[in-house]
Amino acid sequence: MKSSNYGDLTDLGISIWRKRSKERNSFPEQAIYLIDTNSIIIFGKKDKNISYQDKEYFLKTLAKSIRKEEAMRLKDLEKLPALKNIFLLDVDLPDSLKDFEDLNLYSLKSMSEICNSKDSKKSFLTSINEIVK
């Protein structure tokens, strides 16, 4: 039976560097979307029960208002470009994103609260538009 070099070193009590696991670089539980080349939006727990279609409609509206292409759901850190802006919709910053430097964090209301009134929608879209310009 042939054992691996890594296994032999581990048996001897020697720890060696290993590539980050895919688990640490992924966030399947979080709804994280790229809304611009350097901006993402993260939905919080209050929005967990909102349907996929409603979130897609919300994001399409957002993309149109900031004159960008459609938002794209991110499943892992490998697909993240140079990140500048993070919009947190009633959620804390995930640990997996704390490694990025020079981030602008914006804590906002949940999608549910934003969509409650016409004024809150306008306010939200205006603030995002000013930041993403």
Order of helices and strands: HHEEHEEEHH
Shape: elongated
| Portion in helices | 25-40%
Provide the number of structural domains.
1
Structural class: alpha/beta
**Uncertain residue ranges:** 19-28
Strand content: 15-25%
Strand order of the largest sheet: 3-1-2-4-5
Total count of strands: 5
Helical stretch tally: 5
The whole-angstrom Rg is 19 Å
Largest sheet: 5 strands, mixed
Q: How far is it from the N-terminal to the C-terminal residue, by CA?
A: 61 Å
- The averaged pLDDT comes out at 80
Describe this structure in words.
Strand 1 (31-36) and strand 2 form a beta hairpin. This protein has a five-stranded mixed β-sheet, with helices on one face. The longest helix is centred in the C-terminal third of the chain and has 15 residues, at 118-132. With 133 residues, the protein is of the alpha/beta class. The N and C termini lie far apart (61 Å). It has helices spanning 5-11, 22-25, 52-65, 111-114, 118-132; strands at 31-36, 39-43, 72-74, 85-89, 104-108. It has one domain. The chain is elongated, with a radius of gyration of 19 Å.
Topology:
Layout: H1 5-11, H2 22-25, E1 31-36, E2 39-43, H3 52-65, E3 72-74, E4 85-89, E5 104-108, H4 111-114, H5 118-132
Parallel strand pairs: 2-4, 4-5
Antiparallel strand pairs: 1-2, 1-3
